[in-house]
């Protein structure tokens, strides 16, 4: 992200004068307090900041004179606030465009004010085009304006190379088909001139007649056969290329870090795997079947027209583009808009219906049926009106545009007939000519729509390749080693933030001993889950290091390491498939006995045996056909099947009722014995068996010790535990009172 | 504490009473709204261009003014809150304060709710799921990009269109009926 904008010469001079020659940060502060857009910049030097506008430093301050620089997000704008001896004050104001930049700058100012090392790791991507600065479409790196079309096609060509044989076969079929299509009118001419209406002085030839008829019929049959071959070959090629692309995107998505996957919404990735690759398939199919075919026809038919009679050719070809453009214009500006409006009203009515029907209990409870019927009536009549309007117009316009397209043909007939009467042309020639003329209109009309879908497909190509070419953030070290985990984990001065201007962990250092159970405690947002994400190396630390048995986590093979970590999360995800498959997920070659053993340890065996289909029970999407507690027990069985030396429990039991929790806790106790375990739990009673508790507060380790030690210390943990006890006591009392 | 009951509240409280037999407390008692008036609250602007308020003997050095109805009525039912989002009290109407204080509070509202009004739509071009707008607004000429769908252009009242661009900047067309036919057609496509 750009944190050091280049200033215009006058502004730069003013900035240098205000903060010194070294401008470390310079970001636009483009909004005045009165609500006007300005061309202002906040400039940060070594130890001063300044607000520069129109070549003047309007405000200058010493960074160390203030503290708590903070970005306050307001509605549609942000302000950078700070506090000094006189209280809080607004430094600058900006539109949302630069909000993230101010986040970084505020962090840098705070570090400077406290005389600390600046800890911002500016690795966020700029959401604007690197070439023109324009806004980017999500997932693309170059904007539509700057994208080189040749470059995108080249990438596609490289992927298509593997299928060149089929592609060539398809192209040959296509050229052959167009030659046959173009030969049709020629034989028509022979048919008419040779047999039906021979020119004066010639007698009709039956041989010619039969040859022409045979050629016409043969041409038709071969043409159709070739069309079938062409369509089959091209469907095959384009589907294969799209399948290759889908495979590439999917494989890449699997290997990319969790950071990338969570920053791109899952739906977006899914869209790229399915939607975008399909659009590319359509492009290839359309390009290789229709587009090239139409182009050959257009060029060849035009050449033949001109060689037959150039004057007539002009009559046909001159109005063609105009008519085709009119046709497109009517579609794009009138009909499309009307239909668009109709769909929107339909959508609105639909979502209203969905809303009301799914909330029918509420409607009935408040007795508002009458009101809802009235509202639906309005939507309904609106939709009917829009449909009538667009359909009426469509039914009027469609024949007119069709007529316009055909208009050239009538002119040809008019002039042609006159030429026949003047003996400049014979009937056969005229028929041939008008047939060629009719071949020209189709391709022209079709090409008017081409730019739009080619451009859409180009964006798809870019979006697909932007995933394929993405570099994983968590890189495998060149000489990554396999390491058999024993279970000692050391955090050494760890700094980390998902956005580096908002550090979640700040200088975390502590060691977990082999076989120890550690409970992570703290308010929500204190960094507990982040710590676990780092220990699993879903993300790399910004600063500091994490060591497993003394080996830096970055030097261990990722897959090997994660296969030795068992994870149970609050939200269990189970795949569609049998219970057996789900438990076996962590170790696909596990024997049935091993699976049963794991299930018994996890207290899952009994409930599984009670199911009519036992371990072969088919789970629905995300295990919706079993209860939450049962799902969780399956997740535990899955986590321990592999006998992992390291176990991570992130709120594994917090979504369950007390009784189920008891059952699962008992299972976990058995599992945790002799295994390094890191557990997070909101209910502190869950952690009473932990060897040590680590209390996190605002991203720092605040307290470490056993339950008894921390209670005695009367610090944060003590406060948390007394608050929870009071709460449960109150609940108990209330229950007793009932 | 002042607790006057509006007509609506009376109806609502009667309904509540009908349901919970014998529970006498009205809704306005339960809601416990503390209204700031010119008699019990003293607003002032700090040296750092921020708002401070003194209620009784307690001074809050920095407070923010939030609107209850930012689209339908910006001058009524304002909430005065601290940075920790604690409510100091509510203002029933800016009319209850002197012109000078009302202006000060309005200034703060302008800062918090930055939503330039679109005076003229020059062009809206739709491409690949995004629309590119060029408009003349009360904050000057603005070019911005809006992601299609997801309620980024929505009618907050039957005639007032709120447009949120990809960065989170907000723009508003105060009255769709005042747009020319051409403008309306361009805008309508994105709704």
UniProtKB/TrEMBL annotation, chain A:
UniProt-annotated location(s): Cell membrane
Predominant localisation class: membrane
Transmembrane segments: 164-187, 207-229, 287-306, 312-331, 433-455
Topology of this chain in the membrane: Multi-pass membrane protein
Gene Ontology molecular function terms on file: ABC-type oligopeptide transporter activity; ATP binding; ATP hydrolysis activity
Chaperone recorded as keyword: no
Record-linked InterPro entries: AAA+_ATPase (IPR003593), ABC1_TM_dom (IPR011527), ABC1_TM_sf (IPR036640), ABC_transporter-like_ATP-bd (IPR003439), ABC_transporter-like_CS (IPR017871), P-loop_NTPase (IPR027417), Type_1_exporter (IPR039421)
PROSITE patterns named among the record's database cross-references: ABC_TM1F (PS50929), ABC_TRANSPORTER_1 (PS00211), ABC_TRANSPORTER_2 (PS50893)
Pfam families membership: ABC_membrane, ABC_tran
Record GO cellular component, one term: plasma membrane
Domain ABC transmembrane type-1: 169-450
Keywords carried by this UniProt record: ATP-binding, Membrane, Nucleotide-binding, Transmembrane, Transmembrane helix, Transport
Origin: domain of life: Bacteria
Residues of the ABC transporter domain: 489-723
Protein name: ABC transporter ATP-binding protein
UniProtKB/TrEMBL annotation, chain B:
InterPro entries cross-referenced by the UniProt entry: DUF1854 (IPR015005)
Domain DUF1854: 65-186
The organism's place on the tree of life at top rank: Bacteria
Name of the protein in question: DUF1854 domain-containing protein
């Amino acid at each position: 992200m750009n944190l050091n904008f280049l200033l215009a010469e006058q502004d730069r001079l003013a900035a240098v004068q205000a903060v010194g020659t070294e401008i470390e940060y310079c970001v636009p502060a483009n909004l005045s307090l009165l609500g006007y857009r300005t061309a202002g910049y906040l400039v940060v030097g070594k130890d001063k900041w300044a607000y520069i506008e129109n070549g003047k430093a309007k405000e200058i301050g010493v960074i160390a004179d203030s503290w708590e620089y903070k970005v306050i997000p307001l509605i549609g704008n942000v302000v950078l606030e700070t506090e000094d001896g006189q209280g809080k004050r607004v430094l600058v104001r900006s539109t949302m465009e630069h909000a993230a930049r101010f986040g970084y700058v505020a962090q840098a100012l705070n570090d400077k004010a406290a005389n600390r090392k600046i800890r911002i790791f500016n690795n966020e991507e700029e959401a604007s085009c690197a070439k023109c600065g324009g806004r980017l479409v999500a997932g693309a790196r170059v904007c539509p304006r700057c994208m080189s079309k040749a470059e995108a096609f080249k990438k596609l060509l490289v992927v298509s190379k593997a299928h060149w044989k089929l592609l060539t076969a398809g192209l040959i079929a296509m050229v052959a088909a167009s030659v046959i299509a173009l030969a049709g009118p020629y034989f028509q001419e022979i048919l008419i001139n040779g047999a039906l209406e021979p020119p004066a002085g010639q007698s009709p030839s039956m041989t010619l007649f039969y040859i022409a008829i045979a050629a016409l019929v043969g041409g038709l049959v071969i043409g159709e056969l070739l069309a079938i071959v062409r369509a089959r070959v091209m469907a095959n090629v384009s589907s294969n290329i799209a399948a290759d692309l889908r495979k590439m995107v999917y494989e890449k998505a699997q290997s990319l870090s969790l950071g990338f996957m969570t920053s791109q919404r899952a739906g977006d990735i899914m869209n790229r795997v399915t939607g975008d690759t399909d659009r590319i398939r359509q492009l290839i199919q359309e390009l290789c079947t229709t587009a090239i075919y139409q182009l050959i026809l257009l060029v060849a038919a035009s050449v033949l027209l001109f060689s037959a009679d150039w004057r007539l050719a002009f009559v046909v070809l001159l109005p063609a583009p105009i008519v085709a453009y009119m046709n497109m214009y009517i579609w794009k500006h009138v009909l499309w808009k009307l239909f668009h409006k109709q769909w929107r009203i339909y959508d609105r009515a639909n979502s209203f219906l969905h809303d009301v029907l799914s909330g029918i209990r509420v409607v009935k409870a408040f007795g508002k049926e009458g009101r809802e019927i009235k509202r639906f009536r309005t939507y309904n009549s609106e939709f009917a009106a829009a449909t009538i309007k667009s359909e009426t117009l469509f039914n009027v316009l469609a024949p007119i545009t069709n007529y316009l397209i055909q208009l050239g043909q009538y002119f040809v007939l008019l002039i042609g007939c006159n030429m026949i009467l003047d003996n400049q042309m014979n009937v056969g020639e005229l028929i041939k000519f008008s047939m060629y003329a009719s071949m020209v209109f189709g391709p022209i009309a079709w090409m008017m729509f081409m730019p739009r879908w080619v451009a859409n497909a180009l964006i798809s190509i870019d979006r697909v390749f932007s995933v394929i070419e993405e570099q994983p953030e968590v890189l495998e070290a060149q000489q990554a080693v396999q390491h058999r985990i024993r279970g000692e984990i050391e955090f050494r001065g760890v700094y980390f933030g998902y956005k580096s201007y908002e550090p979640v962990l700040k200088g975390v250092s502590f060691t977990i001993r082999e076989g120890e159970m550690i409970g992570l405690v703290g308010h929500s947002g204190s960094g507990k889950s982040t710590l676990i994400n780092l220990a699993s190396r879903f993300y790399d630390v910004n600063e500091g290091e994490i060591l497993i048995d003394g080996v830096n986590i970055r030097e261990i093979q990722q897959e090997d390491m994660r296969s030795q970590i068992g994870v149970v999360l609050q939200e269990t995800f189970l795949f569609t498939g049998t219970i057996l498959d789900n438990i076996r997920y962590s170790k696909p070659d596990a024997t049935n006995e091993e699976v049963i053993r794991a299930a018994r340890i996890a207290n899952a065996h009994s409930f599984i045996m009670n199911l009519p289909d036992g371990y072969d029970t088919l789970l629905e999407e995300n295990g919706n056909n079993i209860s939450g507690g049962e799902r969780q027990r399956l997740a535990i069985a899955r986590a321990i099947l592999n006998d992992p030396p390291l176990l991570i429990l992130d709120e594994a039991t917090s979504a369950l009722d007390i009784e189920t929790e008891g059952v699962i806790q008992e299972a976990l106790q058995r599992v945790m014995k002799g295994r390094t375990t890191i557990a997070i739990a909101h209910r502190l009673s869950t952690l009473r068996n932990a060897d040590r508790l680590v209390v996190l507060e605002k991203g720092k380790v605040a307290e470490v010790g056993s339950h008894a030690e921390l209670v005695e210390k009367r610090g944060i943990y003590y406060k948390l535990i007394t608050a929870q006890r009071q709460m449960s006591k109150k609940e108990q009392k209330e229950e007793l009172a009932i | 504490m002042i607790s006057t009951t509006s007509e609506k509240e009376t109806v609502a409280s009667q309904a509540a009473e009908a349901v919970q037999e014998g529970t006498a407390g009205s809704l306005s008692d339960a809601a416990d709204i503390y209204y700031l008036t010119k008699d019990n609250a003293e607003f002032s602007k700090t040296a750092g261009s921020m708002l401070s308020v003194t209620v009784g003997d307690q001074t809050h050095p920095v407070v923010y003014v939030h609107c209850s109805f930012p689209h339908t009525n910006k001058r009524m039912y304002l909430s005065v809150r601290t940075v920790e989002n604690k409510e100091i009290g509510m203002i029933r109407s800016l009319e209850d304060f002197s012109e000078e204080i009302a202006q000060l509070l309005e200034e703060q509202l302008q800062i918090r709710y930055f939503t330039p009004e679109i005076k003229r739509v020059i062009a809206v071009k739709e491409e690949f799921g995004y629309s590119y707008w060029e408009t003349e607004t009360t904050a000057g000429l603005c070019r911005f990009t809006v992601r299609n769908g997801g309620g980024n252009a929505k009618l907050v009242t039957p005639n007032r269109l709120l447009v949120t661009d990809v960065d989170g900047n907000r723009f508003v067309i105060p009255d769709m009926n005042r747009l020319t036919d051409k403008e309306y057609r361009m805008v309508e496509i994105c709704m």
